[in-house]
Each structure stands twice: as C-alpha cells, then as structure tokens.
Sequence to fold (230 residues):
Amino acid sequence: MRILVVEDEYSLAEIVANRLKKEKYLVDISLDGEDGLYNALNDIYDLIILDIMLPKVNGIEILKQIKENNIKAKVIMLTAKSELDDKLLGFNEGANDYVTKPFHIDELIARVNAQLRINKKSNEDTIEFGDIKLDLKNSNLIKKDTLEKINIINKEFQLLEYFINNPNQILSKDLIYDKVWGMDNDSFSNNLEAYLSFIRKKLKILGSKVTIKSIRNLGYRMEVSNEETN
Fold:
C-alpha cells in the first residue's frame, strides 16, 4: 500500500516516512502544499498524512480538493494546534483521523494501520483472491486448499498486493508504475514484465488458477482461469 506524507518539516517527514517503510508501506513525501495537492489528486495513494500548516496551500484546502475530486485515500491530519475547533474543521471537511503534534511515532503508525485495515477484504494479516492468499506479515503467497506457500519479497510482493486488491480490473502500465514504483520512478517496461513473469511462475508452481493476463494496448488483469492447471 502507498502513503503520501505532506509535511513541510523535512526532518519530521523523513522520520515518519522511514518508519512507514519499515512497516512495508511505500511512501512518497511532499514538502509543501502545492506539491502535496498535485500528488494527492493523482489518486494513487491508499492514505495521506496531511499537515494543516503548509506553505503555498494549507492542509484544509488540500483536504477540500481531495474530497471534491472523489479521491479514495484515507486522510490523517497533523497539526501543532490542539484546539477543538481545528479538529472539528478537519473532521467536517472529511478527515478520517487527527493527530496533534508533538506525537509519538508509534501512535501515528497505529492510526495508519487502523485506517488501512478498514479496507482489507479478509483479516488484518492476509488478503485473498481465487485460490490464493497473500500473508502480509510474513510475505508468503499461499495456496488456500493445500496451504503450500512461497516467499514473495520486494517488488513482487508489492505487485501481488496491488493486483489482489484490484482483481478483475485492467491496470495500465502507467498506473502500476505510479502505485508500485512511485511517481518519479525511472524503471523501464521490461522491469515490470520481468517481475510479472516471476509471479506467474510462482503461481504455476503452487498450481493456482489465478493468472495475470496481458491485455493488448491496455495493461494487465488478474483473474481466475477456467483452464486446468497441470
């Protein structure tokens, strides 16, 4: 899952981003409101951590734009203020949660995890599609009927998580790159093809009927094949 941190205090943004990465989240940072708004409106994030006091565009205006444009990301607001009016303003504009500075990083991580668990299709440790499930804690791909498993790491894991969370949908190459590699990635198309080839081989090893099909000129789609697996 991908998170955007919009925070003008660079050291704090780095601390938050580094801790989120340890939790296996993909993280981008925006250091001002203008850049934060631009990134948020690309709609590639599952959650946005949004400071209220920002240069160029403040957090409340960004939040308004997020909601007006029907961006699906959860939003956790950050502020140095603790007055009730500020919290009510954020909630009234559609914020999902609110953390007051200074905060303990463990509290923020707990709130992030709580918000993202709301959208998971199974329990908090696995997501499922067809005859497979992905163990999010241990990075294992598991065949549900046999419980046979294969370890999946790094980009393969992130790709599988993205496809399982968006089954039966055609996902363009650009969207996949934005979601998994980040908006400023310098990867080439053969990198994606290589990772997808690795994933397909592991699905075949498990004897799964789940497949990732190439859709000519459009992208890729994860679906359940009707063909018998040898």
The chain has a mean pLDDT of 85.
